[in-house]
Structure formats: C-alpha cells, structure tokens
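Input.
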Amino acid sequence: MMHGSQALLQAAKRKVSAIASNAITMRSITVGTDMISSVISLQKARPWYMSDAEGSNMADDNAVTLKDLFKKQTVALFGVPAPFTGTCSNEHYPGYKALADDFLQAGVDRIVCYSVADPYAMDGWAKALKNDAEKITFMADPDSLFAKAYGLDAAYDAVSLGQRSIRFSMVVADGKVEAFHKVDDAVKDAETLLADVKEWKDHQ
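Output.
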C-alpha cells in the first residue's frame, strides 16, 4: 500500500505530466504578449522542510500561477540559465541587487529572478547571495514548462547543465509585456531593464 506522502508525490507527478501534455502552443514573448492567460505555474524558492510544522514540500502548495505573479502589478523579471553558476552569480544577479531600490522607486512592485531549476537549489542560491527576499523573489521552473512554452528553453549539455533557459529579462505590467530582451550582456542587463521601466512609465 502506498503511504500518504508517496501518494501525494505520485499525484503531483501525474499533474505535471498532464500540464505538459496539454500545455499551450509554444509562443514567443514580444511587447504586448499576454502572460496571465497561461495555465503554467512556477514554484516558490524554498528549503526542504523536515516536518509539516515547518512547511509543505508539495508542488501544489507552493505553486504560483502566472496570473498570481503578474496580475495588477508591475514585475521586472530576469531569467538566468542556472543557480550557482559563474555569470549568473557574478555578473547578472549583482546588477539587480544593486539597483533593486531604484526599480522599486521607479514603480516596480516585484523583482523576480527566474531559472529552470528545483526550488531548493534556488533557495540555497538566494541565501548564498545574501539576497533580500523583500526586494527580489526567486522562482523556479523545475520542469522547464514556462521556458518551453515561450520558446526560451536551451540545451547546455556541453557544460553539464542539461536543459535550461536562455538568459532574458522583461517588464510585465498587469499581465502585459512592456519590454523584453534576450540578454547578451549580463552585467548591463539590470541597467537596461530599469531604463525600460522608466521609459514605459514616462509614456503612460
């Protein structure tokens, strides 16, 4: 007989498979793309809880739908290929950490760091970076559903990272993409996206 926790894990796996098989047709992200009509969810970065009193490890309990993430707020989201890797840790994230207050003062409600990774690795990475969770939220896409649905997935087999996402950033206001970049210069990305936020605000 399957124990309760095993049954829940099996149910979660079946749900992931069902979502994957019924996922939206792959689309690209451009200015004007609606991000809240998707059924896809991301996972909150979190530690592995050793008891129910500490919290839940179940995917359903930690899911954040794109509607929940983007509806009725302005979000600056940057995507990195993998936690704990050199460029992501030393060049991409630091710009957002340094400019976090500027983003918030410019009218951004939430800054999100996204990666195709498990939520536990993302939590460990955030702690290693001494991230302020009140300013930058870390989100995981463990099954690469978001990346694949929006054509952001990429293979990094040559450096032993497997299937991940490209490096990208975007501004989403009330579910609508106002700026989107495939990032070539990780160091300058935060500065570029902040300029996009200010320009968008000036034209409202």
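Confidence is low (pLDDT under 50) at residues 1-5, 11-25.
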